[in-house]
Amino acid sequence: MQRIRLTFSRSQPLRYTGHLDMQIVWERTFRRARLPLMYSQGFHPQPKINQACPLPLGMISRMEVLDFWLQPEVPLDEISPALLPALPPGIEIISLAEEDLRTPALQTQVTSTIYQATFLIPFSADLLDQSVFTFLASPQILRVRRNKPYDLRPLVHNLEVLQTSNPLNPHLQMHLAARDGATGRPEEVISALGYDPLDTRFERMQLLFGEQ
Amino acid sequence: MGKTPLEIQSFLERHLLRVEKPGRYTGGEYNSTLKNWQETPTRVALVFPDIYDLGLPNLGLAILYQDINRRPDALAERAYTPWHDMEALMRREQIPAYSLESKHALTDFDIIGFTLPYETLYTNTLNLLDLAGIPLRSAERSEEHPLIIAGGHACFNPEPMSAFMDAFVIGEGEEVMQEIINQVQESKSLQESRSVLLHRLAKLWGVYVPTLYSPIYNPDGTIQAITPLDSATPAKVQKRIVAKLPPPPTHFIVPSINVVHNRVSVEIMRGCTRGCRFCHAGMINRPVRERSIPEIVSSLEEALQQTGFEEIALLSLSSSDYTHILELVNAVSDHFSGRHLTISLPSLRIESTSVDLLERLQGSRQSSFTLAPEAATERMRNTINKPIPDQMLLDTAREIYSRGWKTIKLYFMIGHPSETLEDVAAIASLCQAVISVGRKVMGRKASLNVGVSTFVPKPHTPFQWVAMDGIEQIQAKQELLRRRLGGPGLKLNWTDPRETMLEAWLSRGDRRLSSVIERAWQLGAKFDAWQDENHFDLWQQAFTEQGLDSSFYTHRERFIDETFPWEHIQAGVTRKYLTEEYRWSLEGRLRPDCRNQCYACGILPLFKDLRQANPGEGWKCPEVTAGKIRSVTIPLQETL
User: Of the candidates A150, B130, B412, B425, which lies 20 to 30 Å from B180 by C-alpha distance?
Assistant: First the structure.
């Protein structure tokens, strides 16, 4: 048995594929690549593919991670050539590495994420600076999601306005918590700052792994 | 509206997150084909006029998509109907219907081909033309517009949609689609008018150009004759068939979101020899042609490699009748077991052998086992020509439950010709008997789902003369079933009689229905195939406004010599044979399976040259040598 960690980017063609559908996209990809995926035991065997962290619908990502298990083992340098022609449009491999079978599940290893937001409607960077300052200075930001009230503030590690060549087109970098039961959602931050998430484009820049 | 692909892209970029399941509208799936637009002379849009989720798995379009894209001089892209939310957004932002691959507006294509497998897609077809900014009626279009064509089972009565289509494909599309593209190319290079192109198309075997024909009506509204307007146009349009089933498609598009069927499908055979008298597919898809086991297995292997799908479907109208079904099941099972695949084999005969077949194929138990007895009394079974003794059904059910399936699905039909309430009550009793068999075998875990549809007298079938039940009769029969089919483990589904009526009008209508369809669409009818979209009142209003009586089409028993609106469409089975079958049904007389003996339905004389050129097992009709049909009787096979 062999555990492989795949780091990849996910772009436009898979922007509207949800987390569960992504699981199936990967299953089909491995099957096309003829890699011997391991399956769980039991009445409904499931392929052993473990995605790190759901990417919200409509977002693209520069860094996604998943683990998959093969049996029998395949030499690492044979995996990439098998996988490449089988990849769906929108996926590009960044790295493939053998992972220790004993390391804990990916979901528990990722502790925070970095997103970048760009805005479709032009507005002043100063205005954004102001609302970011107020946000970060607030002890709590109460919001309601799916009828449940919660405090967004502790889920936001940092916000940073990035100036671009166009003063009316600032970007916003967000460092958000991504721990089990404590995940900051980028569109929630945008709403809390007073902007419409539907007029915002999000890109996940990085998944950060916590201390073991 | 005239929007460029860039403008359409930018609309999608800005608005897609506002709609449900945005992945329906983006394209870019694995195996979708994006060819160079500028360098490809002929561009075809293939359209399934319902949502992506239903349209993507359509096998007919998958075949044409791959065939057309294989040509260097043509490309095929896809379009589906946007759901209500997306349509509203598109209309608000003045975005026309567009193709998923290159995001070109449909008006940019040379040919738009609609598949119309069932009639309740008609209003959606008009809606898509409108959303594309294309005039609905063929008469209002010119060579400026794409050629609008349709094919699929519903087109065997093309008359209701005749005002909107420039041409119909009657029958199998594989070869004729290529010929249509050739004609369009030639006509374009000669800068011909639309009318000249249509005359070209009318000469192709299997193509019907409605504007070249005109019906004459009798004073009572029935049809006296439908005749071509000039001598160059054939009086009858013969359906197209392929003499040998071509290699099955293998590069299926793999969706990135969940759709109704996520699978590799292969037709193991086309057509059916059983001759159930209500069955449209069984009459129009003759002759029966089978694929060989090696071809089926190797195409499945190739398709799985190309798609990575987790499911295989072996399709046919009656799987048990495939000549070497046991060998096929063994081969598929040996080849594909242990690969975590689900394999389905629908349309199995009601006999215990079917349980062996499915068990062999599926290794692990599927959730349910489906059978279609259609009727529950001997008299009804003889009328519809589907004789299955109760005992056989009960024995099969016992076998299914005792091998571990928890759910059986049974399909019945009410409203068969001359059906009485006793015949309907027998459905309930039979279902009660089945569930009690299940309880004996596995106690309260056993369940039975009963689906009851309503008979519609379809064109080109022996029942085309029959008057169908009225809404009140249907409701009374359904009420009876609801009263008697309750209790733990039993679930009953039925079709809303108003939906059945709509299907019936559209199946049986003549050219005057075009105005009714257009009016119903104007009044707001669309997605008519969806159960929660009921537009019955709109349709009634449309009939009234057009001065037509809907019951004229459905509740009137036809004279045996009445000229039908589809009289000029030749499905191959002769009117003489259908008449005989109708008479036999009235006498309760059974027609055996024609695999064992030819009953001269008319197919073989029509296609005798094709049969002669394709001898052997591929066709189930008798051999033809030196232009003569061999009148041998194939010895009766031992039925398993």
Answer: B130
Threshold 0.90, pTM exceeds: yes
For A34, name the nearest residue in chain B, comparing CA atoms only: B305
Who contacts A109 (Cβ-Cβ below 8 Å, separation ≥6)?
A52, A103, A209, A210, A212
How, if at all, do strands B628-629 and A156-162 pair? unpaired
- Annotate B58-86 with DSSP letters as a single string: -HHHHHHHHHHHHSTTEEEEEEEPPPHHH
**What are the tokens at B201?**
């198309």
pLDDT tens figures, B263-306: 999 999 999 999 999 999 999 999 999 999 999 999 999 999 99
- The SS3 of residue B257 is coil
Nearest-angstrom CA–CA distance, B611 and B618: 9
Question: For B324, which DSSP code?
Answer: T
Encode pLDDT of B507-564 as tens digits: 999 999 999 999 999 999 999 999 888 899 999 999 999 999 999 999 998 999 999 9
- A48 to chain B, any CB pair closer than 8 A? The answer is no
| B256 vs A contacts (CB less than 8 Å) | 13-14, 16-17, 21, 25, 88
**Each residue of B301-348: pLDDT tens digit?**
999 999 999 999 999 999 999 999 999 999 999 999 889 899 999 899
Residue A32 touches partner B, C-beta closer than 8 Å: yes
Residue B22 gets which letter from DSSP? G
Cβ pair B257:A17 closer than 8 A:
yes
**Longest C-alpha distance within chain B, in Å?**
74
Can you say how many angstroms the Cα of residue B431 is from the centroid of all Cα atoms in its chain? 28
Helix axes B293-307 and A19-32, enclosed angle (nearest 10): 120
Q: Is A43 on the interface with B (CB under 8 A)?
A: yes
- Please name the amino acid found at residue A156: V
Distance from CA of A12 to the nearest CA of B (A): 9
Split chain A (212 residues) into runs of 10 and give each run's mean pLDDT: 97 96 98 96 89 95 97 96 97 97 93 95 89 96 94 97 88 94 94 94 95 50
Q: Where are the alpha helices (DSSP H) in B493-617?
A: 497-508, 513-523, 536-545, 551-554, 575-587, 603-606, 608-613
Using CB atoms within 10 Å of the CB of residue B363, give its burial: 0 to 12 exposed, 13 to 18 middle, 19+ buried. Answer: middle
The minimal CB distance from B28 to the residues A13, A21, A39 is found for: A13
* Contact yes or no for A27 and B310 at CB 8 A: yes
| Partners of residue B151 on adjacent β-strands | B115
Give me the residues paired with residue B315 across strands: B267
DSSP, res B186 = H
Whether the Cβ atoms of residue B532 and residue B498 lie closer than 8 Å to each other:
no
| Closest residue on chain B to A120 (Cα) | B14
